[in-house]
């Protein structure tokens, strides 16, 4: 009975991924600071070492953006999953954006073995400009930098409410498919 109640609670939170469903409905991040179809503001982002992240290095392909912070346990669990997606999916680029300070972000990158670019020191950008309210979350941009979709990571996972490689991939594919129609 406890298992059924837990599964029901996860479904109410929007994290269900029914294998028999023909189409999964994903909720956008509430009050996100960029409208679907608008240009995503990538200018001025810097990595943990102070280097500007060049737009031409992250655009040109669909861009999966992960919003995370070092104090977020589900964010830590996503690192190997995103590394795997980065390895498997040559059709997308991956970028993470964190409010964490450079020193914290650099330590986190080493500790958890990231294989994609990270923008650090993005407190104002995340909280005031984008209005990100919780972590982890994702945004997806087209190859020209226009926003396709946003989603809380708990909608992309298994019964435990954590994003899975399959869940993230299915969401990315669903958003790409929508734009192709």
E-strand count: 5
- Indicate the CATH architecture: 3-Layer(aba) Sandwich
Number of domains: 1
**Number of contiguous helices:** 6
Instruction: Output the strand order for the largest sheet.
Output: 3-2-1-4-5
> Under CATH, the topology is which?
Glutaredoxin
| Overall mean confidence score, pLDDT | 87
The helix content, as a percent range, equals 25-40%
Model description:
By secondary structure, the protein is an alpha/beta fold. The protein has one domain: Glutaredoxin (3-Layer(aba) Sandwich), CATH 3.40.30.10. The protein is built from six helices and five strands, in the order ααβαβαβαββα. Strands 3-2-1-4-5 form a five-stranded mixed β-sheet, covered by helices on one side. A hairpin with a 5-residue loop joins strand 4 and strand 5. The N and C termini lie far apart (43 Å). The N terminus is likely disordered.
Task: Describe what is shown at a glance.
The protein is α/β, with parallel strands linked by helices and 181 residues long.
What is this structure's SSE topology?
Layout: H1 2-12, H2 55-58, E1 62-67, H3 73-88, E2 92-97, H4 102-112, E3 117-119, H5 123-129, E4 137-141, E5 147-152, H6 165-180
Parallel strand pairs: 1-2, 2-3
Antiparallel strand pairs: 1-4, 4-5
What are the salient characteristics of this protein?
single chain; alpha/beta; five-stranded mixed sheet; disordered N terminus
